[in-house]
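Saturday, quiet lab. Running sequence design on the structure tokens for the scaffold JK sent over.
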């Protein structure tokens, strides 16, 4: 019974978000797009030897997220990474992952 109680408590915490697709026009009721976007990263992780450190795991998570985001926006990955590295070296603001329509 305690497991069921905990599961129900967790569901109640996110209840409002579960029904967001009913209130936000165009929001799909599934997470299929997110699952498809993660597929490449999951396959890479399964086929690789992994990483040896927490820092390595965080880097792989972040770079895969950046690559997926840029691919979805049809933006050049290498160009973004070069600009991000240059900004880091100069100590200036990194380029945004937000689409240009959101940053303008």
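Result came back. Writing it out in full:
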């Amino acid at each position: 019974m305690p497991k069921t109680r905990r599961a129900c408590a967790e569901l109640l915490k996110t209840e409002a978000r579960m029904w967001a697709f009913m209130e936000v026009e165009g929001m799909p009721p599934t997470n299929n797009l997110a699952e498809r976007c993660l597929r490449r990263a999951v396959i890479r992780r399964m086929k690789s030897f992994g990483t040896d450190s927490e820092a390595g795991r965080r880097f792989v998570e972040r770079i895969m997220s950046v690559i997926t985001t840029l691919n979805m926006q049809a933006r050049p990955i290498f160009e973004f990474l070069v600009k991000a590295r240059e900004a880091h070296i100069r100590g200036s603001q990194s380029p945004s992952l937000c689409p240009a329509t959101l940053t303008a």
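Notes for JK: The radius of gyration is 19 Å. Helices lie at 2-13, 15-18, 20-23, 32-47, 54-72, 77-90, 100-103. Ask whether to fix the surface positions before the next round.
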